[in-house]
Amino acid sequence: MKFEDTIKKISSIAAGFVIFFLASGIYLSAKGFQFIDGEIVLVKGANASELSSKNIPNNIVIPGGRSLGSSKAPVTLYEYSSLGCYHCADFHLDTLPQIKKEYVDKGLVRIVFSDFPLDQKSLKASLVASCMPNSNYYDFIALLFKKQREWSLSFNTEKTLAELASQNGLSESEAYKCMSDKERAQDLISRRQEAMKTLEIQGTPTFVIANRNSREVIFGALDFEEIKPLIDKKL
User: Which residues make Cβ contacts (< 8 Å) with residue 128, sequence separation at least 6?
Assistant: First the structure.
């Protein structure tokens, strides 16, 4: 066998391994696996939610997150979203500003954002966001949704996320530290699992609309015209 042929064969095998590892990483990520302590761990799978709803008892503790609006608002809207979810991005960029103007700014609704990462890249984005101070948090979440394709399709997601974080007051070194924080990651995953167990959330986006007397879980994407009557009913 000629030397050139040997080199070609070795290169072909090496390329095959690279493709295999890239493909397996994408597959595992899509299936809801996480890499924890150097091992691949299956976190119960979840998908995009299909539109449906159900009422839940008032004594159920709702896993929450960062909030926007008055704590005295008569209605609370819990938003369970994955930062890599396209429908979640549509809601956050198109519908949420309308809700904020119509209800939040008037003291009628408080919004609670709860991370529900569906894959490894979304988890990394959630980790960076969790390190943001409250004053920058929602602006950064909006930026992540706006730049969703940029970081979610990147071959170096961590670098892209760190660069985006630096635009919102968190240094790149701090962002990398957040993404490698295993305790923080486990906390995010645990809260995700608690939401799946308590509220039976299986995908994103999912919402809980609550007032003092009743709570309703809405599974699936909603535009402003669809969610408005649900909020008004609770008011």
Answer: 140, 161, 162, 164, 165, 170, 175, 178, 179
pLDDT in tens, 55-104: 777 777 787 788 999 999 999 999 999 999 999 999 999 999 999 999 99
pTM for this model (two decimals) = 0.77
Domain boundaries, the chain: 45-234
Peptide bond into 205 cis (omega under 30): yes
65, burial (CB in 10 Å: exposed 0-12, middle 13-18, buried 19+): buried
CB 144 within 8 A of CB 110: no
Cα dihedral across residues 20, 23, 25, 31: positive or negative: negative
CB burial of residue 54 (10 Å; 0-12, 13-18, 19+) = exposed
DSSP bridge partners of 210: 76, 215
> Are β-strands 206-210 and 75-81 bridged in parallel, bridged antiparallel, or unpaired?
antiparallel
Cα–Cα dist 232/127, whole Å = 34
Average confidence (pLDDT) over 140-165:
94
Cα–Cα separations (whole angstroms), residue 210 to 53, 201, 213, 235: 13, 16, 8, 9
Virtual CA dihedral for 69, 73, 74, 79, nearest 10 degrees?
20
- So what's the architecture of 45-234 in CATH? 3-Layer(aba) Sandwich (3.40)
* Rounded Cα–Cα distance for residues 40 and 165 (Å): 27
CA 198 to chain centre: 18
The Cβ of residue 17 has, within 10 Å, a number of other Cβ atoms equal to 9
pLDDT at 190: 87
Write the pLDDT tens digit of every residue in 2-13. Answer: 545 544 454 454
